[in-house]
Amino acid sequence: MENRDKIVIGSRGSTLALIQANWVKSELEKKYKETEFVIEVIKTTGDKILDTPLAKIGDVGLFTKELEEALLDKRVDLVVHSAKDMPTAIPDGLEIGAVTKREDPHDALISRDNLPLKELPQGATLGTSSLRRRAQVIAVRQDLNIVDLRGNLDTRIGKLESGELDAIIVAQAGLNRLGRGDVSSEIIPFDIMLHAVGQGALCIENRVNDEQIINMIKILIDYDTRHAVRAERVLLHRLQGGCQVPIGAHAEVVFPVNMKMEAVVCSLDGSTIIRDSVEGKVDDYYTMGIELANKLIGRGGRKILDDIKANVAEE
Known about the structure:
- One of its GO terms (cellular component) is cytoplasm.
- This is Porphobilinogen deaminase.
- Tetrapolymerization of the monopyrrole PBG into the hydroxymethylbilane pre-uroporphyrinogen in several discrete steps.
- Belongs to the HMBS family.
- The structure is a single chain.
- By secondary structure, this protein is an alpha/beta fold.
- It folds into three domains: 1-100 and 201-221, Periplasmic binding protein-like II (D-Maltodextrin-Binding Protein, domain 2), CATH 3.40.190; 107-187, 3-Layer(aba) Sandwich (D-Maltodextrin-Binding Protein, domain 2), CATH 3.40.190.10; 222-310, Double Stranded RNA Binding Domain (2-Layer Sandwich), CATH 3.30.160.40.
- The protein has helices at 15-31, 45-48, 54-57, 65-72, 131-140, 153-161, 172-177, 211-216, 223-238, 285-298, 301-314, and strands at residues 6-11, 36-41, 78-82, 94-99, 107-111, 125-127, 145-147, 167-171, 186-187, 202-207, 247-254, 258-266, 273-281.
């Protein structure tokens, strides 16, 4: 294939998505000064449907399908995704060619009175669109009124400032990338809330036979993050969970070649929290993901996830 002198980067159109895509564009421009890089905005299903909880739409490719179709059709040359949005099944002909260095993967609480989760007033109203966050919050604060919250960060913070909500939970990584990391009232510790699979990292997706792009995006790879995200995604795939189910996981490379990983499966009412961990070598990320998933399944995780899917299907 002849090398192109213009490369098109596919991205969602939100402020955060464009910040992420522009960061990738900037990094590539520094290295490949003779190549023109442009961003093509593509609207996904998840961007179009804002008045329905994500879990009820169906979660396979909500924020990725249209981007992947553009990649397969060669309308774009690579796509920038938030890793947490990516289904574990990648379409034939495509691959994750690079995983970038992870931003802070924690979830963050923003509250009107700058209070942490455990100090919110009795019965306070908290907004989140995530079943995972909802379940883990209920496990420690059964008294809170948790409501579904969709929209970009400005929309969510606006509902907080208007008094409609007392608190919201968002990804700290997104706040940091938007330059608003200081608005967090609390960075929620992992012993209370484990983050979504891949949270904080970016995945660069490309066509499997596109050698020019494969070679170009190597400069974006952070190998520790790639191992960690791969382990988390293996676990998610084994649990047959999508990005809208109450599964949290955190894998981390511990210098020099070891990795530790913990994960959680929660019932929607927060009454059952199944949590476990494994340790191993980074090259054994696949085995570690399977081992930890099997531990959770053996302790009742499969029944919880099956019950949740059945309940969502009935609604």
